[in-house]
Amino acid sequence: MTYSPFSIHGADRSGHWVITCDHASNTVPEVVGGGSLGLPEAEMERHIAYDIGAMGTALALGEVLNAPVVCSNFSRLVIDPNRGADDPTLIPQLYDGTIIEGNRRIDGVERARRIAAFYQPYHNAIVETARGKDIAFLSIHSFTRQLQARAPRPWEIGVLSAQDRRIANPLIRRLQGALTSPVGDNQPYAGFFPGDAMTQHAHSKGRPNVILELRQDLIETEAGQTNWAQFLAAHLEAASKDANL
Q1: Which fold has domain 6-242?
Q2: Burial call 211-233: b when 16+ CB within 10 Å, e when fewer
Q3: Most buried among 5, 93, 102, 179, by the most CB within 10 A?
Q4: Is residue 148 pLDDT above 70, yes or no?
């Protein structure tokens, strides 16, 4: 089968969301180091290589919300599609204590090649999927419960957004009423990196948007992904109505 740096699921769905999953895969394509970044398999199964459970959750949400889903098909360690093309962390050399051997000596030529081969086609696929549609953007990510040498994170879910809080604010209120654990507001990560995926596809075009970060141990199984998708879909739809979208 011919390799593609992205996959589109339900392209003809007519719901008012477009769902993206920037860190869906831990794949290292064959054209990058013969399919290896010099890391043992155990490291490539960690959160450093992809967002565990995020793709399954995004696909389940796409079915419930009748929304198209665009997923990357390369590890964030190959190149991170949720960074601006000029971001110094676009191709990471160190992640949560692990040295990415295959990226240590990367030069400008290789950087440009990875942008052209993986990063740009993924973003082009998002543009084409959203073209001509009156939609809101939803991006699905996941986070590890505890980084090395850090305190455990208290959240099950984080709601991330930048200046456009049309969906985030009512969604946080609804989740706070439905969950016993704290709901992260731009936690465990900030809702904005210069040039990130939401900047490219939502902020710059005035589209309503929200990023959801789910704790990985809650969505590592298909059952967890399905349960969270059904739970979140109801609150997302209600929040969009609260925002008069």
Answers
A1: Aminopeptidase (3.40.630)
A2: bbbbbbebbeeeebbbebbeebb
A3: 5
A4: no
